[in-house]
């Protein structure tokens, strides 16, 4: 009964999302074709959707697409999974202990606002290869959303549940496994989803170090040689890959917290 009731809403949401994308595409076509000029924003040199489609097709039929994709995917996922392991572990420690929070959180909060581009010189000095430097920059992009959401999720767990588990004789590991992790899981998954998006966000910055392959490098190189349509192709590729991988993380995460997902559907 509930499933049937939700079907019209799902179709309405899908229609609204499709309409939004089509409206953006129509505006892009009109603004780039007729060279709209709004004073501070001008579309004089913005390529049309047709020019971008041609550039995308040329990339697809070339031999460069797979090496670019392979390089970017390996860097993003290596940095992301490293950030996920460290961010969740630190988040659990900080969220459970005020002493650990007082010791670790201040330096992390100092590092958190530093933009990815500012890490480039230090990353080059710290790591023996440009590949490790790029992975490190994507790692920094993913780490802090995962860390902070994990801390928030752990701190938001109802203290009465923890006290009840202790009164029943549960060990520290059992409390962590049966109370803390399930309670913090929705926030952790949110952090993992955001962290995946920020990894892709940092990709262009990371691949400025690279000299050959990667979607970020392709986008930056296109800017340097003024291939404007290729710039948009690179941007859209990063956007689609980032959206797709974030959606994948969110979907997989929902499989681990079915109770939370079903509650939101009601």
UniProtKB/TrEMBL annotation:
Its main location: membrane. GO terms for cellular component: plasma membrane. The chain crosses the membrane at residues 73-95, 110-127, 134-154, 174-194, 232-262. The keyword Thylakoid does not apply. GO terms for biological process: alkanesulfonate transmembrane transport. It is found in: Cell membrane. InterPro entries: MetI-like, MetI-like_sf. It is a multi-pass membrane protein. The keyword Nucleus does not apply. This is ABC transporter, permease protein. It comes from Cellvibrio japonicus (strain Ueda107). The lineage of its organism: Bacteria, Pseudomonadati, Pseudomonadota, Gammaproteobacteria, Cellvibrionales.
